TrEMBL record:
Its main location: secreted. Keywords: Carbohydrate metabolism, Glycosidase, Hydrolase, Polysaccharide degradation, Secreted, Signal, Xylan degradation. This is Beta-xylanase. Residues 1-20 are annotated as: Disordered. It holds the Pfam family Glyco_hydro_10. Its EC number is 3.2.1.8. It catalyses: Endohydrolysis of (1->4)-beta-D-xylosidic linkages in xylans. It is found in: Secreted. InterPro entries: GH, GH10, GH10_dom. PANTHER family: ENDO-1,4-BETA-XYLANASE, GLYCOSYL HYDROLASE.
Length: 364
């Protein structure tokens, strides 16, 4: 159930930064002011506690969320911040196929349910992640050959059992995750190889049958900017819409890396999906760097977090932002990208980093 993650966030074309100096200076002033408020401490703020990221996002009709994972939920200070700062959570692993159908036809929703119950207690909405993906599949599924007829039945049953179980409990599903290669060709997954490209439309239709109301998404990384991979989604979305296949949105994971450049066409890209009548969401945001983290790198990271927040706020149909967990303590990055990390807005001691203050400023 491990995965090779080497290409997340790698560049598909050269990026040129387009932000003006004025904007950056304004931003810096805002961040400094926020830091000042933070260090002058509770006295200055005693009368009313500062709004959370969720509060600020809600003023724009957006959510601000975090991924979380079951093993972390014993960490009380972590859990307290997770419950207070965000209005949306995504299970990092608990709803994946290996966890939910560990034996063929034997379903186990304990991990996902734990996250859903936590979300309910904290008045948060939940993104379902994910139904169809080539990674973290159970051994019974990958360990043998399937005919198309067999695999279709297995896939349909998996999708419909899980979607039915979480009906009314999740607001959106990442129905198919990571379906394309960097060059915009279909990824040769077990589903593609056995069923052909039609598996995507089928998956969406099966999910819709099982929950008529939930928002259905396709989700991927390296599709933040305009390029061959996001073009593939744009073309597929157009076709699916023309065929009246139920598709509500495109999830842009946004696993960015300082060393690969900022996707400056993000806002234009969000807009072109909106023009197809689709929602978009930034679903798994983190901005990693080559360690050690320096003040400069953390400042650049803060600016990127603000820039992507601006981009989402600029496009009405960008419905929200989710960080892929909120603290470096529980980030997946160090385990998957050697020598990299410090990708999230809170550090390993749960202290807010410059990125946190920059997001706040952008949301004001
Ligand atoms: C990651 C989890 O965070 C890790 O705990 C796990 O070991 C591997 O998967 N894209 C996705 C997410 O869609 O499901 C991945 O999550 C990160 C990349």
């Amino acid at each position: 159930m491990t995965r090779a993650g080497g290409s997340y966030g790698s560049p598909t074309h050269p990026h040129v930064r387009s932000r003006t100096m004025r904007k950056n200076r304004l931003r810096l002033a805002g961040v400094l002011a926020a830091v000042l408020v933070a260090v002058t401490g509770p006295a200055a703020q005693a009368h009313d506690k500062p709004p959370t990221l969720a509060d600020l996002a809600e003023r724009h009709g957006r959510y601000f969320g975090s991924a979380t994972d079951n093993p972390e939920l014993v960490d009380e200070p972590y859990k307290a911040l997770l419950g207070s700062e965000f209005d949306q959570i995504t299970p990092g692993n608990g709803m994946k196929w290996y966890a939910t159908e560990p034996q063929q036809g034997v379903f186990d929703f304990t991990e996902g349910d734990e996250i859903v119950n936590l979300a309910r207690a904290n008045h948060q909405k939940v993104r379902g992640h994910t139904l169809v993906w080539h990674s973290q599949l159970p051994g019974w599924l990958t360990g043998r050959e399937w005919t198309a007829t067999e695999l279709r039945a297995v896939l349909k049953k998996h999708i419909q059992t899980e979607v039915r179980h979480y009906r009314g409990k999740v607001f959106a599903w990442d129905v198919v995750n990571e379906a394309f290669n960097e060059d915009g060709t279909y990824r040769e997954t077990i589903f593609y190889k056995t069923l052909g490209p039609g598996y995507i439309a089928d998956a969406l239709r099966w999910a819709r049958q099982a929950d008529p109301k939930v928002k259905l998404y396709l989700n991927d990384y390296n599709i933040e900017g305009i390029g061959p991979k996001s073009d593939a989604y744009h073309n597929l979305a157009k076709e699916l819409k023309a065929q009246r296949v139920p598709l509500d949105g495109i999830g842009l994971q946004a696993h960015l890396a300082l060393q690969y450049g900022y996707p400056t066409t993000l806002e234009d890209n969000l807009r072109r999906f909106a023009e197809l009548g689709l929602d978009t969401a930034l679903t798994e945001v983190d901005i990693r760097m080559i360690l050690p983290a320096t003040e400069e790198k953390l400042a650049q990271q803060a600016e990127w977090y603000a820039d992507l927040t601006d981009a989402c706020l600029a496009v009405r149909r960008c419905v929200g932002i989710t960080v892929w967990d909120y603290t470096d303590k529980y980030s997946w990055i160090p385990a998957f990208f050697e020598g990299q990390g410090a990708a999230l807005p809170w550090d390993e001691q749960l202290r807010p980093k410059p990125a946190y203050y920059a997001i706040r400023e952008a949301l004001r």
